[in-house]
Amino acid sequence: MTRTATDPSWFTRSRLGLFVHWGIYSLAARHEWVKTRERITEADYQPYFDHFDPDLYDPRQWARDAKAAGMEYAVITTKHHDGFCLFETDLTHYKAPNTPAGRDLIRPFVEACRAEGLKIGFYYSLIDWHHPDYTIDGHHPRRDDMEARALDHERDMSRYRDYLHGQVRELMTNYGQIDVLWLDFSYSWRDWGWSKGKGKDDWDAERLLDMVRDLHPNILVNNRSEVPQDFHTPEQYQPRAWMHVDGKPVMWEACQTLNGSWGYDRDNLDWKSPGLLIRMLVDGVSKGGNLLLNVGPTARGEFDPRARATLASIGSWMHHHSRSIRGCTQAPEEFVTPPDCRYTWNPATGRLYVHLFAWPFRHLFLDGLGDRVAYAQFLHDGSEVRRTEYEDAGHFPTARADAAVLALPIQPPAGVEVPVIEVFLHPE
Ligand code: GLC
Predict the structure, then answer these.
(1) Ligand 1 within 6 A of 235 CB?
(2) What are the residues facing 244 on neighbouring strands?
(3) What pLDDT shows up at residue 232?
(4) Backbone phi, then psi, for 138, in 5-degree steps?
């Protein structure tokens, strides 16, 4: 019987978290998959290990930036697919303490998050392109190296499994309360002919998760070990509706990048605008989901200025609008969302939030809510948004008779990326 978190309510209440992808690939600065994309050998990858010296690392600043952006939790890569560990571990030498960094970099991160009141998540890669027992498959950097492939039978996944379980145990015991475990990823459905993908049997995921639950009964775990757990993780796309599995709504968290790469990617200019990211956040909440937004810090340990500026813009929007995000979810099904809008809904207060993705001319029609609207205001400044009374509705022969019609100014509120109207409803 699979156990899941006993109380996941903090997660769905918070809605917005920070993802951090940091490792020695940050020195290459061309995507966290660089080792396998470029088929880099251990020897040629070693300079990134030897030169990892994040002298400007200040996790308190990261945590403050996250908090100011309105985020309430942060998930960091303790180990990525390249096998490099940011934490102190007894099980490998391939770790930050043995680089010029000279120390465990996860502990100060955990302390910084705690000091700023952020919940803490550990990303841990199930995949490992450094471990000598991890067999070579179609994702592996050595996949075209016929000599290495010929020796693949000497690799022993059961030894890798012990290592993986041992490291997850270290992470689950050495850092106090951990709120999220973000495992990445399974691909047992892949078949390259000469090799197959890996999945829950390769990880012995059932036993792994049992151990995790014994240590942290209320931790939230994602679905990527192939054992159903607490939440689903759509990646780099926005679900069209609340995610369902076997006909039932599930908890979900979209993970998104700022520019298409998770690790720091110096020359990548595909930066999403703050407005787009805010609309993605709103869109997710309107479908009952969270957003885990990623920053790839630089090799010296800082958030790139473009990332900081984006977080600051999101923060200035959240400063006025967190009420339409936190504690909110999809509106009741019978509510008809106006064109170019997203509804979110706070079930505890019964308030409805109308997010305007485009600015209409003068009138906003809330179909079906004619009898329900008690009061409406802009969220950014608390200024009243007046109703156009029903007598005037003759002006709107095309409107539904049961619509509440709100009167909008010609100009959208200045400097507000996504304007929001907070609607107080009479109870039904
Ligand atoms: C993918 C990628 C990985 C990234 C992750 C984040 O699975 O392999 O690089 O860390 O998604 O969701």
Answers:
(1) yes
(2) 249
(3) 98
(4) -65, -10
